[in-house]
Amino acid sequence: MLYDCRSPADRDRGIAAAIEAVKNGELVVLPTDTVYGIGADAFTPYAVKALLDAKGRGRQMPPPVLIGSRHTLDGLVLSLPRAARDLVEAFWPGALTIVVEHSPSLQWDLGDKTGTVAVRMPLHPVALEVLRETGPMAVSSANKTGQPAAVTAEEARDQLGYSVRAYLEAGPCPDPVPSTIIDLTGEVPQILRQGAIPLEKLRDVVPDIVEGA
User: pLDDT per residue over 110-121, tens digit each?
Assistant: First the structure.
């Protein structure tokens, strides 16, 4: 079902429906500050599998994890590099995804690549409201693999149909540029994907960031 979150009453119903769906292991589509995302509970393996199946994607490309607060990050990692903390302080919530080593005790299965996770805290009130109730969610762009990323929930519904329980519509994405991805698992921070946050701004915070191959 699609809920128009631009209406206060529909927004409340939609957010409640999305939270319930995620807790029940079902899929939702929600707006972020980049493009719309399809999400599932990160700690429910069959829900993550359903997400990958809905997109037509294999396990070799684990979805990123979105969180609703900076404090949640501390519960996902054993230790966070200083560069990661500085970048999070500067750009979260926002269009920055960081790749870090996750705690080995976490009971999740995001795909074939283990030991690391791509994490982001989005700058969108609807997404944050959902995430603060559901906890970490596996979220990927709300489109079939190989198709254009959805910039409205209605576009996402056209591609994903009944595989998703709740669609949260908040209007067109104002700036549908993907997040910048930085790998912080090595000795030198490395940009894996150029995105919404340019290199010069990142280097203002962490000067030794390098561009990926």
Answer: 988 778 999 999
Quote the CA–CA distance of 156 and 204 in Å, as a whole number: 36
Residue in 211, 156, 166 with CA at minimum distance from that of residue 189: 211
The answer to whether the CB of 197 falls within 8 A of the CB of 91 is: yes
pTM equals 0.95
Count of other CB atoms within 10 angstroms of residue 194: 14
Show the beta-strand stretches assigned E in the chain.
Answer: 2-4, 28-30, 37-41, 65-66, 96-101, 116-120, 137-141, 166-169, 180-183, 190-193, 210-211
Burial class (CB in 10 A: 0-12, 13-18, 19+), 5: buried
CA atoms within 13 Å, Cβ hemisphere of 116? 12
Mean pLDDT of 124-143: 97
What CA–CA distance (Å, rounded) separates 196 from 138? 20
Task: Please answer whether residues 57 and 82 qualify as being in contact, where contact means their C-beta atoms are separated by less than 8 angstroms.
Answer: no
- In angstroms, rounded to a whole number, what is the distance separating the alpha carbons of residues 97 and 7? 30
Q: Report how far residue 75's alpha carbon sits from residue 164's, in angstroms, rounded to the nearest whole number.
A: 28
